[in-house]
TrEMBL record:
Keywords: Lyase, Magnesium, Metal-binding. Signal peptide: none annotated. It comes from Microbacterium binotii. The gene is prpB. It catalyses: (2S,3R)-3-hydroxybutane-1,2,3-tricarboxylate = pyruvate + succinate. This is Methylisocitrate lyase.
Length: 298
């Protein structure tokens, strides 16, 4: 009831242990706290909090318009409601290295298990669009060093994302990933790798966990969990998938209202009220309320 019973430290340790186990961790993207709770119920190992989803939720493009307080606030909302560790997208860290340091501490306070900082210029853009630009290597390394130095909980995962593959090729991505690991990154997010062979090459190149981004309509083929596991990927995210599915269903329902003036034919596609109440532990709230408000007037 009310939120997670596990502490932020517990969830961070669990995230680290999962990565150390060698098993692939599956992190669907939650577009709100309720969807995060559903992800946990379905047996996944973690939750991903996408900057693209947060931007879209605010009616904005994913070009660095969201603020640190907005991202930290959504992270806290989602982390509070699930026992799973949450990995959050911190874009470019919201400024210079000092800003990156503050970002990490605010995200620690929000209760998430880790964050990734990328090497795009600011303002950034979606990692699977053309026209990206990245900062020079020293700037990228300063961001990661600032993040690592700023964290207070050593179990908070600092992941470095590099977008250089789409600009300078795989060899440049591998070289930058190695440098980011040397700067202290606990894990690597190589954005927009094109093939399984590229993921395998990245896996051989660095000795920290690597992440695969299986976003639809992007540069990467939509590989299966088994395919990614076989080439040594440690984390897979589907950052925007649930939002896309939900918005597609919402649009079809609105079309039905326009065409027919009712949703009687859509009821079978809806989450039943009883299922929603079960997901949010409605009965526990009722029981708590009854146990407190027992006073009767003499």
């Amino acid at each position: 009831m009310l939120g997670s019973t596990a502490s932020a430290s517990d969830k961070r340790r669990a995230f680290r242990a999962g990565l150390a186990s060698g098993e692939l961790m599956r992190l669907p993207g939650a577009f709100n706290p309720l969807s995060a709770r559903l992800i946990a119920r379905k047996g996944f190992e973690g939750v991903y909090i996408s900057g693209a989803v947060l931007s879209a939720d605010l009616g904005l493009p994913d070009i660095g318009l969201t603020t640190l307080s907005e991202v930290a606030g959504r992270g806290a909302q989602i982390a509070r409601t699930t026992e799973l560790p949450a990995l959050i997208d911190a874009d470019t860290g919201f400024g210079e290295p000092m800003n990156v340091a503050r970002t990490i501490q605010m995200l620690e306070d929000a209760g998430v298990a880790g964050a990734h900082i990328e090497d795009q210029i600011n303002p950034k853009r979606c990692g699977h669009l053309d026209g990206k630009a990245v900062v020079d290597e020293q700037t990228a390394l300063r961001r990661i060093r600032a993040a690592v130095d700023a964290r207070r909980d050593p179990d908070f995962l600092v992941m470095a994302r590099t977008d250089i593959r789409a600009i300078e090729g795989l060899d440049a991505a591998i070289d930058r990933a190695k440098a980011l690991v040397d700067a202290g990154a606990d894990a690597i997010f190589p954005e927009a790798l094109a093939t399984l062979d590229e993921f395998e090459a990245m896996r051989r190149a660095v000795d920290v966990p690597i992440l695969a981004n299986m976003t639809e309509f992007g540069k990467s083929e939509l590989f299966s969990v088994d395919q990614l596991r076989d080439v040594g990927v440690n984390i897979v995210i589907w950052p925007v998938s649930l939002l896309r599915i939900a918005m597609g269903a919402a649009e079809r329902a609105l079309d039905e209202l326009v065409d027919k003036g009712h949703l009687r034919d859509k009821v079978g596609e809806m989450q039943h009220r009883a299922e929603l109440y079960d997901l949010i532990d409605y009965e526990q709230y009722n029981s708590f309320d009854d146990s407190i408000f027992t006073y009767t007037r003499p």
